[in-house]
Amino acid sequence: DQKSLHILKNAKLSGEVLLNLVNNVLDAAKLRSEKMELASIEVNFDSIINKVFTINSENLKRGGITAKAEIDKKLPKSLWIDPSRILQIFMNLMSNALKFTSKGGITISAEQLIHSQEEYIQISIHDTGIGIKEEDKGKLFKMFGKIEQSNTIVNRHGVGLGLNISENLSKLLC
User: Fold this and answer.
1) What is the torsion angle, in degrees rounded to the nearest 10, for the CA atoms of residue 132, residue 148, residue 28 and residue 167?
2) Which segments of 71-117 does DSSP mark as H helices, in order?
3) How many Cβ atoms sit within 10 Å of the Cβ of residue 96?
4) Per-residue pLDDT tens digits for 126-135
5) Can you say whether the dihedral through the CA atoms of 151, 155, 102, 49 is positive or negative?
6) Which residue blocks in 33-161 are alpha helix, DSSP H?
7) 81 and 121 in contact (C-beta within 8 Å)?
8) Packed helices 45-55 and 83-99: angle between N→C axes, nearest 10 degrees
9) pTM of the model
10) In 3D, which of 100, 94, 5 has the Cα closest to residue 48?
11) Within 10 Å of residue 23's Cβ, how many Cβ atoms?
12) How far apart are alpha carbons 138 and 153 in whole angstroms?
């Protein structure tokens, strides 16, 4: 019946949320202890961006939020990276953008940069969300960092690990 199906769906979702939390705590511990191991696999960069949009399509649709990608044409089509970790970074960034964007859109950008003869990819996500106060920006990448506004936490979803993990993975991927 419908009630049982609803209960099962909620139980499955709760299990997925709990598994994600445990995985984030484990990733944070591995990064902190410098025990994180990375793969190096040739992947199509566009396929990773497409996967981010596909995974988040229901949330985007439900919120009436548009999404687009702006990928630098100079970026090679295939890269040697750890696809699961780069996807994890994108998903953490997209998750935050979705949490704080109630209308408008989200844009994923990837640009090839050269600094001191080294090539880098700068990844950014821009959204039309509520924005962040200048004094709160320092909290964003701290472990368990959450932004408060008028003695209330702006977003009760998540535990404040995603951006910290993303920052540390980004450094490790360089």
Assistant:
1) 10
2) 83-99
3) 20
4) 999 888 888 8
5) positive
6) 45-55, 57-63, 83-99
7) no
8) 40
9) 0.78
10) 94
11) 13
12) 16
